[in-house]
Amino acid sequence: MRSSAFDGRSDEEVFVDFRSGDKAAYRELIERYHDDLLRFLTRLVGDRAAAEDLFQETFLQIHLSADTFDASRRFRPWLFTIAANKGRDLLRKRKRRRTVELSAPLKGSERGASMVDLLEIDVPAPDERLDASEQDRLVQLALDDLGAPLREVLVLGYFQRLSYARIAEDLGIPLGTVKSRMHAAVAAFARSWQRVSRPDLRDE
């Protein structure tokens, strides 16, 4: 387990230390959020290299905008809002889709998770003849059809295993919006899955 001089201090307290000129505090925040934020960005934008660039851009923005942060509020939602906005910007600029890294395990999960986990919710089950890699590929094709707002809530809900309340906080949107987007995302994913997993329906 990683030991730090900042152990026991909240993100907000560490951020105040950073804003006061403590460079070690900035590195601490980067280390605390490296895994979760990079995983979120990877699945949001579709490839690891782009996600790493966005991770750096996000923390650069944190550095540049430090004076604008209200330290009486929570740091994590501010961080994820900045990251999500940068991810949306990249998705808008792209002219073609790219393949997401499917096999990144969930932090704290003994068995890990991939996009096939989406098939465990209220969506059609995959053909038993498909192997795991083919399932992952088809799930990615289905996920690619979702716009950024729907993909965000799906990634946070089914990969990060966050509650609706936590998603609302992290993305800075109302709880009702999270619920409606999640409902729409699952329905859209189900339709896309039907199309990509059944060749007989693709041309309909």
Main features:
Rna Polymerase Sigma Factor, Chain: A; mainly alpha; elongated; 8 helices; 204 residues
Mind sketching the topology for me?
Blueprint: H1 11-19, H2 23-45, H3 48-64, H4 75-93, H5 132-144, H6 148-158, H7 164-171, H8 175-197
Helix pairs in contact: 1-2, 2-3, 2-4, 2-6, 3-4, 5-8, 6-8, 7-8
What is the gist of this entry?
This protein has helices spanning 11-19, 23-45, 48-64, 75-93, 132-144, 148-158, 164-171, 175-197. The protein has 204 residues and is mainly α. It is elongated, with a radius of gyration of 18 Å.
Protein architecture, described:
There is one protein chain. The chain is an all-alpha fold and 204 residues long. It folds into 2 domains: 11-93, Rna Polymerase Sigma Factor, Chain: A, CATH 1.10.1740.10; 115-201, Orthogonal Bundle (Arc Repressor Mutant, subunit A), CATH 1.10.10. The protein has helices at residues 11-19, 23-45, 48-64, 75-93, 132-144, 148-158, 164-171, 175-197. Helix 1 (11-19) crosses helix 2. It is elongated and about 60 Å long. 30% of the residues are buried. Residues 95-129 have low confidence and may be disordered.
